[in-house]
Amino acid sequence: MALLQISEPGMSTAPHEHRLAAGIDLGTTNSLVASVRSGDATTLANEQGEHLLPSVVRYLPDGSVVVGAEAKAVEVSDLNNTISSAKRLLGRGVDDIKTLAGNLPYTFSSSDSQVPKISTVAGDVSAIEVSAEILKALKNRAEKTLGGDLKGVVITVPAYFDDAQRQATKDAARLADLNVYRLLNEPTAAAVAYGLDQGEDFDEKIIAVYDLGGGTFDISILRLNKGVFEVLATGGDSALGGDDFDHVIAEWILQQLGDEQENNPTKLREVLVEARRVKEALSDADKVEVSLGDWQGQFTAEQFAELAEPLVKKTLFACRRALRDADIDKEDVMDVVMVGGSTRMPIIRQRVGDFFEKPPLVDIDPDKVVAVGAAIQADLLAGNKPDTEMLLLDVIPLSLGLETYGGLVEKIIARNTTIPISRAQEFTTFKDSQNAMTIHVLQGERETVEENRSLAKFTLRDIPAMVAGAARIKVTFQVDADGLLNVTAEEETTGVKSSIEVKPSYGLSDAEIESMIKDSMTNAQADMELRKLREAQVEADRTIEALDSAMASDGDTLLSADEKTKLLAAREALLLEKQSGDTEAIKAAIKNMEKTAEFYVARRMDGNIRTAMAGQNIDKFKD
Ligand code: ADP
Ligand code: MG
């Protein structure tokens, strides 16, 4: 997805009216809220001075909830009622989480709802509700610190979040009573925090965003072109993060202690806590004293570098693959942005710098950079900067279209179009007196329905009886600023309307999006040929339909029995050829049909019965 700078005229406000706005980084492990105050975007702390809010929610028997550090502290002793990493479940359906659920300590309720729910002492809760509690806590913090009600927020989401995950994030915000100006991709927010979208000294710029958090690794390759940020590729590993670096140190400690400790869970936990402390301390020192019970030792940065090497390599491998997917050479990457607490590790900074052959950007706290970018964006959207009036917009990752006759897809909005966007196209009925039309909404780059992803289907009914081609059905695709699609179909002569909000119950992963785009390229030639064939087949149907319609209305009066036989023979030949799969043969049969019917068309025209003929069909038999 991408960003565009535009000015939205209605958004500027009177000079002294400052609207309270905030940016929220709703993280898997930790969440943050930031705001622009006196021109500076900073994260907001709680009363204890802590900026990071652990994304952990505990449910108590009386129905009350505890959010953050306090919930995290008791997590191990109350696993069933203390939910962490809810972000991993957001927008997932019951089927999606079946594989995940086995690894989670929660009991999933077996309600027939499509949204998975976790059973707690306070009742069943969904990931949306859990996320809403985190958002509420951040909202309270912001309103207390800023001294007023928030007018709106920008919430960040991973670049690979699909429609369902984005919708779930918005639903959580609605539950928390937040007005969401916009969802923003996390890597884009990080680039905005560094002001990489500013300055005029470039035409096009490639940016890599390396995000290593607690349990996940994401690499995004962005292109900034004429004010538009586009996500060229995303990659990473949803099961690789800072925790894995803790584990390699923990293993080393266990080795020093001797094997007998390995099956003692309490001991293991202690070892892990110490390992994390050592890891974090090593970010500011060459060696660290390790102590556990009465055992003492020393662990050096050099030892750490050696043990962590396989993990570092894994991330660099994902970087290489993302560059390849984006079709970008390493040398073309102008800036590398570091995000996530784990990018504090000197070995990471060193090796990422070596890989991209330039020092990565590390000046902004890697925990806070996403929230800071979101805050800058929220401030603009609130209209607090009337002199700049620059806004950032996303683009849609895959084309959106409709099924048309013959199993073909008519693209309404092309991939990489900036959003929000609204596009309309007119369609007509295919048959006389057709009173309903099914609208099948599809996503993808390929030419045929089977090769694209079906998003939704609905039917426009009560189309008044008209001859084929006379109804004017306007189909409007509207994508809002968060990438959510609404489709409306309206019969324009009567105003009969039908619409649907497209909310797929599950979505596409980034990998699926990439492979769909790639498929469309590798199959472009085959698709083109198939499209031509399908078009010829549709044309054949139309020709037959037109003939049938004409013969039904005046065949008996205008045609002799002999003439009828000739026309029907040509019709039969065309029908046979239509099944052949040979585009050229079908086209020839259509030509032949038209030639055979020439005299009939002329006779109908002479008879001045033009009005009896259906819409476009008259043109058909005229030429
Ligand atoms: P997430 O994006 O998953 O919410 P964060 O970006 O908050 O996670 O990163 C958390 C990770 O950062 C943890 O593994 C933590 O140990 C690690 N981390 C935090 N500070 C440091 C540091 N000084 N040195 C190394 N790792 C750190
Ligand atoms: Mg993060």
Would you mind describing this structure in some detail?
The protein is α+β, with helices and mostly antiparallel strands and 623 residues long. The chain has 3 domains: 21-393, Nucleotidyltransferase, domain 5, CATH 3.30.420; 396-522, Substrate Binding Domain Of DNAk, Chain A, domain 1; 525-613, Substrate Binding Domain Of Dnak, Chain:A, Domain 2. It contains 15 helices and 26 strands. Strand 2 (30-37) and strand 3 form a beta hairpin. The chain is elongated, with a radius of gyration of 31 Å. It binds adenosine-5'-diphosphate (ADP) and magnesium ion. Adenosine-5'-diphosphate binds at residues 27-30, 213-216, 241-243, 276, 279-280, 283, 340-342, 344-345, 367.
Topology:
Blueprint: E1 21-25, E2 30-37, E3 40-43, E4 53-54, E5 56-59, E6 65-67, H1 69-73, E7 82-84, H2 94-101, E8 108-109, E9 117-120, E10 123-126, H3 127-146, E11 152-157, H4 163-175, E12 180-185, H5 186-193, E13 204-212, E14 217-225, E15 228-237, H6 242-257, H7 265-281, E16 287-292, E17 295-300, H8 301-326, E18 333-339, H9 346-356, H10 369-381, E19 400-404, E20 408-413, E21 421-427, E22 437-443, E23 453-460, E24 473-479, E25 485-491, E26 496-502, H11 510-522, H12 524-558, H13 561-578, H14 583-606, H15 617-622
Parallel strand pairs: 1-11, 11-12, 13-18
Antiparallel strand pairs: 1-2, 2-3, 2-4, 5-6, 5-7, 8-9, 9-10, 13-14, 14-15, 16-17, 19-20, 19-22, 21-24, 22-23, 24-25, 25-26
Helix pairs in contact: 3-4, 5-10, 6-7, 6-8, 12-13, 12-14, 13-14
